[in-house]
Write a structure and sequence with these properties.
It is globular, with a radius of gyration of 21 Å. It has helices spanning about 5-10, 20-30, 35-50, 50-65, 90-100, 120-125, 135-145, 160-170, 175-190, 210-225, 250-260, 265-285, 290-300, 305-315, 355-360, 405-415, and strands at about 80-85, 105-110, 150, 195-200, 230-240, 335-340, 345-350, 380, 390, 395-400, 420, 430-435. It folds into 3 domains: about 5-50, Transferase, Pyrimidine Nucleoside Phosphorylase, Chain A, domain 3 (Up-down Bundle); about 80-325, Pyrimidine Nucleoside Phosphorylase, Chain A, domain 2 (3-Layer(aba) Sandwich), CATH 3.40.1030; about 335-420, Aldehyde Oxidoreductase, domain 3. About 45% of the residues lie in helices and about 15% in strands. Strands 1-4-5-12 form a 4-stranded mixed β-sheet, with helices on both faces.
Length: about 425
C-alpha cells in the first residue's frame, strides 16, 4: 500500500494492520518515505490514537528495523532504565554504574533532548572525547568489561525510531502515549534486555502532567514490553520541580559525579535514583527484596565502586581516564556564572518546571530543530527547591550563560517561573505509584 494511503487510513480513524505498519516503517528506514510523511503519520496517530495491537506492531517493526542485540556471552542479568523525560533528570548517569557495581549489566541506549526535557545523550556529549555513537563492537566490549555503557542509537539500532523521534520533536506530536511507547521500547527491546524499569514523570515539568495520563503510559509500556518478553516495572515519580540542583548538560554531569563521590546529595534525586535501582536489582533477581537492594546500593556508593564504574565507562568510550578526578578540566564552562536573587524574600512554594526546561533552550542548552547545535555549558546550578528560603543571600539559582543578553533573559525567566510565598511548603512524596509485577 502507498504511504499516503496508510496515512489516509490512520487519518480517518481506521485501524492499521501489522502489515501496513511494517510497510510504513520499512519506508522510514530506507528513506523512501520523507519527513513530511512521517510528520503526517505521527500527527494522525496523535489525533486518533492506536490500539494495543497497533502499538505493539509499531514497536516491534521499529525494533526490527535494524540490529537486535543478544548477550549470550554475558553471565548475568541485562537490565536498563528509561525516563519519560524531566527537567534536571540525571538519574541515568548514576543508576547505570551503581547497578553495574551490584552485578548486573546495563547496556543503556539513550536519546537527546526532546521538547522541554533534557537528554541523557546530550549530557555525555559534553564530556570531551566521549563517544556517544560507538560501533556495536565497542558498545559490547564496554558492557562486558565495565558492566555498563550509556550511548545513543548506533546507525543500525532501531534506525526507524531515530528518524521518527527527530521529527516528533519539532512537529508537536511528542506527547502521544502510543508513539512514546513505541519509541522507548523499540530502542530498549533492540538492546536485548531481560528487565526494564520505567521512570514515568508526572507533574508540570513532565510530558504527562496528570496522573491519569502517566498511569496510561505506564500501563501501555508494561503491557507492550511484557508481551515482547522483557519484564518491566513502571515507577511514576513527581516532576513538579527540578530534579536535583542543576539543569543543563555539563552541569548535570558534574552533579552526577559529585553524587557518586558522596558530595552534597540532593534528597529527592537520591530517593528516585535508589528506588529505580532497587526495582531493577529485584527484577533481575540480584537480590531478594527492595531493602536488600538499597543496602547493597548504598555500599557501592560508600566504597567508591559505583564511581569507579562510571570512570571506567567514560574512559572505555573515549573520554579522559582521569575525568572523575577533576570534571571541570574537561567539561565546557560558560563565560558568565552569576546568581539570580528573588525580588522578595520568602519560601519557594512552587515553580513552572516546564518553563524552566524551555528557558534552558533559550540559553541554547536545548534544540528547536533536530540538527541544531547546542551549548553544553549553559544552564543553571544551585537551583532552589520547593521549601527553600530565598532572599538577597540565597539565590533562586546560579545562571551559566555566554553573554549579558543570555543572562538577562534567564534572569527574567527565573523571576517569572519560581513562586515565592510566606509559608513553607513541604514537598510531596516524589515516588507516586508503581505499576507492573
Amino acid at each position: 500500500m502507498l504511504a499516503s494511503e496508510i496515512i489516509r487510513k490512520k487519518r480517518d480513524g481506521q485501524i492499521l494492520t501489522a502489515q501496513n505498519i511494517k510497510e510504513f516503517v520499512k519506508g522510514v528506514t530506507d528513506k523512501s518515505i520523507g519527513d513530511a510523511q512521517i510528520a503526517a503519520m505521527t500527527m494522525a496517530v496523535f489525533l486518533n490514537g492506536m490500539t494495543k495491537d497497533e502499538t505493539t506492531a509499531l514497536t516491534l517493526a521499529m525494533r526490527d528495523s535494524g540490529d537486535v542485540m543478544e548477550w549470550n556471552d554475558i553471565d548475568g542479568a541485562v537490565v536498563d532504565k528509561h525516563s519519560s523525560g524531566g527537567v534536571g533528570d540525571k538519574v541515568s548517569l548514576m543508576l547505570a554504574p551503581m547497578v553495574a557495581a551490584c552485578g548486573a549489566y546495563v547496556p543503556m541506549i539513550s536519546g537527546r533532548g526532546l521538547g522541554h526535557t533534557g537528554g541523557t545523550l546530550d549530557k555525555f556529549d559534553s564530556i570531551s572525547g566521549y563517544q556517544t555513537s560507538p560501533s556495536n563492537e565497542l558498545f559490547r566490549k564496554t558492557v562486558k568489561e565495565v558492566g555498563c555503557a550509556i550511548i545513543g542509537q548506533t546507525g543500525n539500532l532501531a534506525p526507524a525510531d531515530k528518524r521518527i523521534y527527530a521529527v516528533r520533536d519539532v512537529c508537536a506530536t511528542v506527547e502521544s502515549i502510543d508513539l512514546i511507547t513505541a519509541s522507548i521500547l523499540s530502542k530498549k527491546l533492540a538492546a536485548g534486555l531481560d528487565c526494564l524499569v520505567m521512570d514515568l514523570k508526572c507533574g508540570n515539568g513532565a510530558f504527562m502532567s496528570s496522573l491519569d495520563r502517566a498511569e496510561a503510559l505506564a500501563k501501555s509500556i508494561v503491557r507492550v514490553a511484557d508481551a515482547a518478553g522483557t519484564k518491566t516495572k513502571a515507577v511514576i515519580t513527581d516532576m513538579n520541580q527540578v530534579l536535583g540542583y542543576s539543569v543543563g548538560n555539563a552541569l548535570e554531569v558534574a552533579e552526577a559525579v559529585d553524587y557518586l563521590k558522596g558530595k552534597r546529595i540532593n534528597p529527592r534525586l537520591h530517593k528516585v535514583n535508589m528506588e529505580l535501582c532497587a526495582e531493577l536489582l529485584v527484577s533481575a533477581k540480584v537480590v531478594q527484596s527492595i531493602d536488600d537492594a538499597k543496602t547493597k546500593l548504598q555500599k557501592v556508593l560508600d566504597n567508591g565502586e559505583a564511581l569507579e564504574k562510571f570512570a571506567k565507562m567514560v574512559a572505555c568510550l573515549g573520554g579522559p581516564a582521569d575525568f572523575c578526578d577533576d570534571v571541570w578540566k574537561y567539561l565546557p564552562k560558560s563565560k558568565i556564572i552569576r546568581p539570580v536573587y528573588g525580588e522578595n524574600s520568602g519560601y519557594v512554594v512552587g515553580m513552572d518546571t516546564r518553563g524552566v526546561g524551555l528557558s534552558v533552550i533559550e540559553l541554547h542548552g536545548g534544540r528547536t530543530l533536530p540538527e541544531e547545535k547546542i551549548d553544553y555549558a549553559n544552564g543553571y546550578s544551585e537551583f532552589c527547591q520547593v521549601g527553600d528560603w530565598v532572599d538577597n543571600q540565597h539565590p533562586l539559582a546560579i545562571v551559566h550563560a555566554q553573554n549579558e543578553d543570555e543572562f538577562n533573559v534567564a534572569r527574567n525567566n527565573l523571576l517569572k517561573l519560581i513562586k515565592i510565598g510566606d509559608k513553607k511548603v513541604v514537598s510531596d512524596n516524589c515516588i507516586i505509584e508503581k505499576i507492573g509485577q
